[in-house]
Amino acid sequence: MEQEIWDAVDDVARRRCILVTELVSEIDRQRGEASLTAELRVYVLGYYRKVIERLDSYGMTRVPLARPIEQPAEYATLQ
Fold first, then answer.
1. 4-36 exposure pattern, b = at least 16 Cβ within 10 A, e = fewer
2. Where along the chain do its domains lie?
3. Which residues contact 48 (CB under 8 A, 6 or more apart)?
4. Less packed terminus of the chain by CB within 10 Å, N or C?
5. Is 34:23 a contact under the CB 8 Å cutoff?
6. Tens of pLDDT along 15-54?
7. At what angle do helices 3-16 and 20-30 cross, to 10 degrees?
8. Taking a C-beta distance cutoff of 8 angstroms, is the pair 60, 69 a contact?
9. Cβ atoms < 10 Å from Cβ of 47
């Protein structure tokens, strides 16, 4: 599995105040037929999406989801 995913698993475990091995065991117990690697990726993605949803509910995101994100004019000159 990619290092970035392991870093995210470690981050989630720290935020939940549990060991990485505990988090992996928890995910392993709850998974169905999917591979553990796939379940870890899905869990991490879901965790961070919930964080974003919570930020959205408090109005803490910078761009409303209904509006497309516009690129700054200076970005075009960097390409």
1. eeeebbeebbeeeeeeeeebbeebeeeeeeeee
2. 3-57
3. 8
4. C
5. no
6. 999 999 999 999 999 998 999 999 999 999 999 999 988 8
7. 100
8. no
9. 16
Q: Is the pTM of this model over 0.85?
A: no
Query: What's 66's DSSP letter?
Result: T
The residue assigned the tokens 């169905």 is 32
Distance between CA 18 and CA 5 in Å, rounded?
17
* Residue type, position 2, single letter: E
Residues 6+ apart with CB under 8 A from 24: 9, 36, 40
